[in-house]
């Protein structure tokens, strides 16, 4: 099946798999209700094999076997907001039973609740597998375990009923497996089992923010003699262990019992810390972009003419971040840690930074030309089109959906920019100068739109690089992303500055600057600092939230800059420009509301609310399979 949507369907007491997808493409299932007796064998709720682009969400599965099983040959599978239990949990495998099996690549399981199951998250491969295969790039995050026997388990010696030569290691290679933000209770003392193949040890298996306590007989947390939560442990085989270094990702496995109140305090502290970081990055981005834009226009207004210099000040501030590296020394952890190198190869990272640096240089050059030829209020309004470009690039690079709110935003921002390009009527007395002014306006408009597109592309590619290549979400990663591409872009602009001969005119330009030499220097230094603050804020928001959110916050300058431009630069605020501003703000609000909806959705999905009408519809749609 291709391009299929299944929703609000119930399946009860199937003799075998309730839903089986084999060689399917672009399948979406939502609001499914699947039930079978807890002792019924082989009654998997959902089984997926040799399929791609499959998405299941907002469903409840309670069977006698796996809630969801991911077989061989799958790619780009997303399982989100599933309530699982009873049963055997969510499984990848079993893999490697047959020759010529296809690889598994790109699995995301998130925002799920697993209760009363034999296993939580399980990856199993057959011992004595007849052929080579692999399972890679799998992420399990934001999962609640409630009284689960084996919350996290990798078993590469799977051999039911002694049907294989169990002492022969599995030939299925497991790599790039991420367990993030998993908490709850385990009904067994060994909560985490990483038992990998002797022949092919697991590579790049990460555990981050895993908090599991021993459950009591009633399913709650069991208290130890010191009134803390009873400790659980982990078991690891054929998993490489490395000492913690500054360039490695620190991965915590909670194995010590702690008082319940302390656990809650840590959760709250983590939440407040995240909000504080986001607030800091938002402040840096808004203040930096607003001040830098106004200083850039002031530079041009008072006699500055070098677009190369205006481009350079956007990039050359990266040395200001270098002292921050001194404070990134790792602190000894009191928690048992499992660490693994997360840095990609030097060549891969170099290509990422060079590619982004070249794009940043191009974006900054277009920005400088746009700011030169346009009033700052007009330039700021046109820059709002970056949201539209961001939606397009995020759709292809970051799996961003084009929802009605985003589509509404695209239309409004497009109309806003179109109004600005048709409203300009130069006031030059002669037809020649009038034509020249109009040409400069058109060039400025094209450069402003191109700059917005380039900025949005850089944000989306940065988000993609963090997610797929760097796979590190630390302050050092923010500094690296702010420093190295800026270094590359600075080299490009310096070559342009000297190659064009523009550097020869800088001394004369400074002498003739209307506000004097000191103001000339201070304006450029202020622009440099402001742009660097803006860059750190932008990259920080990409890591903490998303490229979409970073772009939305950047556009918050929209109503601020034009008003300040009228006050300080006496820009004309015509009726058409006011309409364009209103449409752009409306588009921004529509875009921001979509982000708010996305933020609220995980909480709503976790509860899986159903109205009375939905319950009645569920009863009508129920498929009864007689045993």
Protein traits:
alpha/beta; Pectate Lyase C-like; 12-stranded parallel β-sheet; 14 helices; disordered C terminus
Write the layout of secondary structure elements.
Elements: E1 2-7, E2 10-12, E3 19-22, E4 25-30, E5 33-35, E6 46-49, E7 52-62, E8 68-70, E9 75-84, E10 90-95, E11 104-115, E12 119-126, E13 133-148, E14 150-158, E15 172-186, E16 190-195, E17 203-214, E18 233-237, E19 248-249, E20 253-254, H1 260-301, H2 307-312, E21 340-341, H3 346-373, H4 376-383, H5 386-397, H6 404-423, H7 431-470, H8 475-499, H9 506-512, H10 517-544, H11 547-554, H12 560-569, H13 575-607, H14 612-621, E22 622-624
Parallel strand pairs: 1-4, 2-5, 2-22, 3-6, 4-7, 5-7, 6-8, 7-9, 8-10, 9-11, 10-12, 11-13, 12-14, 13-15, 14-16, 15-17, 16-18, 17-20
Antiparallel strand pairs: 19-21
Helix pairs in contact: 1-10, 1-12, 3-7, 3-8, 4-12, 5-7, 5-11, 6-13, 7-10, 7-11, 8-10, 10-11
Pfam family, one: PUNUT
Transmembrane segments: 278-300, 312-328, 349-373, 379-398, 405-422, 442-466, 478-499, 519-541, 548-569, 575-593
Active site: 88
Helix content: 40-55%
What is the averaged pLDDT score? Answer: 79
Rg, rounded, reads 28 Å
- Please give the domain count: 2
Query: Ends: how far apart?
Result: 27 Å
Summarize the main sheet.
12 strands, parallel
Flag low-confidence runs.
Answer: 224-228, 241-267, 329-343, 425-430, 602-627
SS summary, helix count: 14
Q: How does the overall form come out from the CA principal axes?
A: elongated
Name the structural class.
alpha/beta
The percentage of residues in β strands lies in 15-25%
Q: Could you give the count of β-strands?
A: 22
């Amino acid at each position: 099946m291709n391009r299929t949507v299944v929703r609000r369907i119930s399946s009860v007491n199937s003799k075998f798999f309730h839903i089986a997808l084999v060689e399917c493409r672009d399948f979406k299932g939502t609001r499914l209700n699947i039930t079978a007796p807890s002792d019924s064998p082989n009654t998997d709720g959902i089984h997926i094999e040799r399929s791609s682009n499959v998405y299941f969400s907002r469903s409840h599965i309670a069977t006698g076997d796996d809630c969801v099983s991911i077989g061989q040959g799958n790619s780009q599978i997303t399982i989100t907001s599933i309530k699982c239990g009873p049963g055997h949990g969510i499984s990848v495998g079993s893999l490697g039973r047959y020759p010529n099996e296809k690889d598994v690549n790109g699995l995301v399981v998130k925002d799920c609740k697993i209760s009363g199951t034999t296993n939580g998250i399980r990856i199993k491969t057959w011992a004595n597998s007849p052929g080579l295969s692999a399972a890679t790039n799998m992420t399990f995050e934001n999962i609640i375990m409630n009284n689960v026997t084996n919350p996290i388990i990798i078993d590469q010696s799977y051999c039911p009923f002694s049907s294989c030569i169990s002492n022969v290691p599995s030939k299925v290679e497991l790599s790039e497996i991420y367990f993030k933000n998993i908490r709850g209770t385990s009904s067994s003392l060994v909560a985490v089992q990483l038992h990998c193949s002797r022949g092919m040890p697991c590579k790049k298996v990460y555990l981050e923010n895993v908090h599991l306590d021993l459950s009591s007989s009633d399913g709650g947390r069991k208290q130890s003699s010191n009134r803390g939560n009873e400790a659980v442990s982990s078991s690891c085989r054929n998993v490489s262990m490395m000492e913690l270094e500054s360039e490695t990702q620190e991965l915590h496995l909670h194995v010590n019992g702690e008082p319940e109140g302390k656990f809650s305090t840590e959760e709250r502290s983590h939440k407040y810390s995240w909000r504080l970081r986001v607030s800091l990055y938002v402040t840096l981005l808004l203040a930096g972009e607003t001040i830098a834009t106004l200083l850039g226009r002031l530079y041009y207004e008072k006699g500055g003419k070098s677009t190369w210099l205006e481009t350079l000040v956007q990039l050359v501030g990266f040395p200001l971040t270098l002292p921050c590296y001194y404070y990134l020394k790792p602190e000894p952890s009191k928690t048992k840690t499992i660490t693994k190198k997360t840095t990609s190869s030097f060549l891969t990272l170099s290509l990422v930074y060079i590619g982004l640096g070249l794009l940043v240089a191009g974006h900054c050059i277009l920005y400088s030309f746009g700011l030169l030829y346009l009033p700052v209020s007009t330039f700021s309004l046109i820059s709002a089109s970056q949201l539209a470009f961001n939606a397009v690039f995020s759709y292809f690079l970051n799996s961003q959906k084009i929802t009605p709110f985003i589509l509404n935003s695209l239309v409004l921002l497009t109309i806003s920019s179109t109004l600005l390009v048709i409203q300009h009527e130069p006031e030059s007395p002669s037809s020649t100068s009038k034509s020249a002014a109009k040409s400069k306006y058109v060039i400025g408009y094209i450069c402003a739109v191109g700059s917005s597109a380039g900025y949005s592309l850089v944000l989306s590619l940065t988000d993609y690089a963090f997610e797929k290549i760097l796979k590190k979400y630390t302050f050092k990663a923010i500094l690296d992303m702010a420093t190295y591409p800026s270094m590359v872009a600075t080299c490009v602009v310096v070559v342009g500055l000297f190659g064009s001969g523009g550097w020869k005119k800088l001394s004369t330009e400074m002498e003739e600057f209307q506000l004097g030499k000191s103001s000339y220097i201070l304006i450029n230094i202020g622009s440099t600092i402001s742009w660097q603050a803006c860059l750190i804020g932008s990259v920080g928001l990409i890591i903490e939230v998303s490229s979409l959110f970073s772009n939305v916050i950047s556009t918050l300058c929209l109503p601020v800059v034009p008003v300040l431009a009228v006050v300080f630069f006496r820009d004309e605020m015509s009726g058409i420009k006011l309409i364009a501003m209103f449409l752009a703000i409306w588009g921004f609000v529509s875009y921001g509301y979509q982000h708010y909806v996305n933020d609220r959705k995980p909480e709503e999905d976790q509860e899986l609310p159903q109205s009375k009408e939905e319950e009645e519809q569920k009863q009508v749609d129920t498929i009864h399979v007689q045993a």
